[in-house]
Amino acid sequence: MKEKIKDWIISIIGLTVGAALAAAALENFLIPVKVLDGGLNGIGMIINFLTGAPLSILVFVLNIPFFIIGFIQLGKEFIIKYGYGIIAFTLLLEQFKHMGGFTHDQLLAPIFGGVILGIGVGMVIRSGGCIDGTEMIAILINKKTSLSVGQTIFCFNVVIYTVAGFLFGWDRTMYSLLTYFITSRLIDIVENGFSKAKSVMIITNDGRKIADEIYARLGRTVTSIEGEGMISGKKVVLYCVITQLELREIKKIVREADESAFVTVSDVSEIVGAHIKKNNMGIDDGSQVDGNNQTGGKAAKAQI
Prior knowledge:
five-stranded mixed sheet; alpha+beta; 13% strand
């Protein structure tokens, strides 16, 4: 219980600080020079530039449908953090807009705005939440298609920046793209890339319970391997490929099911084949699962 409370406190602090940095980047760097963020925030900024409507209200309203979709499709913990992140972000947008721009230089503003925005968004995602429904939709699309989270967000942003080019001039689009690439790079540094896949290997005494929980909560199957420790004896090794945003839930599942389990997490640089796809039951990550939700794949013996 203490560990869970500690995790939540750390997450809330990370979400709050990240939302504050993101809000400061938009209101004090990007908006004064009419440079756009991507995603729903970018749409809100376009409407704000055209109508003068408060950006905070626009961002909140635009995220409502995505919050409802996420409430149905994703885990309760993620949705709570998503909701908190959006509320904190919109409130902080109101606070920072009264401070004015820190610089109106056409090059410095996109660069430093992108850096601060990337750090802020990276902290939010690292804390298990998000402040833009586009990220959540990209995750859902990733589960059903071969498109990665990063590819989906990039395609969405290209449309936004193209519209901005017609409305505000193509120099705004180029500055916005500069900010986008800087932001993406900083997110990679802070978060190790929310669009990157992670491979998880779990060595446990209770493989069935962990595998069932992973499938029930995340819809992902696992490959089960028979292992044998030199000292600890018979073990079950579970292998699964997930996205970064699912990593916290995997750790939580393992901690609840078997505190003695040993877990390793690695970056996946490339996935060949239909590896992360969601069918009507769950996500096919290259392993097999039968109708009774059992771990599958051909078992192999390994010395651990």
